[in-house]
Amino acid sequence: MNFRTLVLVRHGEYDTDETGMFGLTARGRLQADATARHLATETFDSAWSSTMLRARQTAEIVCAPLEMRHRTTPLLVEGAPTTLRASAVSPEQVEKDIRRMARAWDRFFAPSPGPRKDILFCHANLIRFFMTRVLAIRTRAWTRFVASHCGISRVIVLPRGSLRLVSYNETAHLPAELVTQA
User: Fold this and answer.
1) Could you give the strand order of the β-sheet that contains 163-170, starting from the edge strand earlier in sequence?
2) What is the DSSP letter of 24?
3) pLDDT by residue for the chain (182 residues), tens digit each?
4) Residues with Cβ < 8 Å from 125, sequence gap 6 or more?
5) Cα–Cα distance for residue pair 95/111, rounded to 1 Å
6) Whole-prediction pTM value?
7) What are phi and psi of 135, to 5 degrees?
8) pLDDT score recorded for residue 29
9) Nearest 5°: CA angle at 78, between 82 and 43?
10) What is the rounded (10 degree) CA torsion for 102, 105, 107, 108?
């Protein structure tokens, strides 16, 4: 059947130290390794990553056994799809994030002229935003989704644009001690 399959992978656990680099921790690298082993038998037409370090590092680890390179795009960076009472993110930044997230949606969730399978390495809030659109529910519901480090979500885009959520936040490929959220 001519449909597009999207595999969304949240980045691994990352360091939140004072350097501001936010690279993968040792556990984050183990999460990415386990994800790489899990996805190694699959074939992908393309791999895309956020430009943020933790997503790029996850993509590098997962794409190595697939023998493919990933491309980066700022469309997949983290953001906030709604304002939150306890958040320091300004309403102006939220509007900017929503516009970018909508562009990412338009770019990656469009029907494909033929069968294809793409893998996206990105961030919890963006994946949760995408899920609200897949499920056609209000955007504010994004806060109700748990997103684990290296959790895998799968969506099918049918030829006429209809969407099917196959799975959300798969973590069975991770040993229990590697299942983390933040």
Assistant:
1) 71-73, 46-50, 116-122, 4-10, 152-157, 163-170
2) B
3) 689 999 999 999 999 876 667 899 999 999 999 999 999 999 999 999 999 999 999 999 999 999 999 999 999 999 887 766 667 778 888 899 999 999 999 999 999 999 999 999 999 999 999 999 999 999 888 889 999 999 999 999 999 999 999 999 999 999 999 999 98
4) 78, 79, 80, 81, 142
5) 26
6) 0.94
7) -85, -5
8) 98
9) 125
10) 160
Task: Enumerate domains of the chain plus CATH numbers.
Answer: 4-178 (3.40.50.1240)
Q: What distance in Å separates the CA atoms of residue 144 and residue 75, rounded to the nearest whole number?
A: 23
With contact defined as beta carbons under 8 Å apart, do 156 and 5 qualify?
A: yes
Q: Enter the tokens of residue 19.
A: 């350097």
Q: Strand 4-10 and strand 116-122: pairing? A: parallel
CA dist., res. 39 & res. 68, Å (int): 12
